[in-house]
Design brief:
Number of helices: 1
Strand content: 5-15%
Largest sheet: 2 strands, antiparallel
Number of domains: 1
Order of helices and strands: EEH
Oligomer: single chain
Radius of gyration: 24 Å
Helix content: 40-55%
Distance between the termini: 68 Å
Mean pLDDT: 84
Length: 72
């Protein structure tokens, strides 16, 4: 099964230790464990926060509109 270089995206043969195109050292696969970088973790965190906060903000805005129209 081919392996892809994480830096340049070149397709490499299985068992290759260094990418011939960009000379990046490849790590041995660790049993399928996900290795997330700090940037990916922050992106995932902000994505989850957006999913949670947008409905809350919509409900608050609708509630504010209802409150202002009722007590006007």
């Amino acid at each position: 099964m081919p392996v892809w270089c994480p830096k340049c995206g070149a397709m490499l043969a299985d068992g290759t230790e260094r990418c011939p195109r960009c000379d990046t050292k490849l790590e041995a696969s660790g049993g399928g464990e996900a290795d997330l970088s700090t940037k990916e973790i922050w992106n995932l965190t902000f994505y989850i926060l957006r999913i949670l906060l947008i409905p809350i903000l919509v409900v608050l805005v609708i509630g504010l509109i209802c409150y202002l129209t009722y007590f006007r």
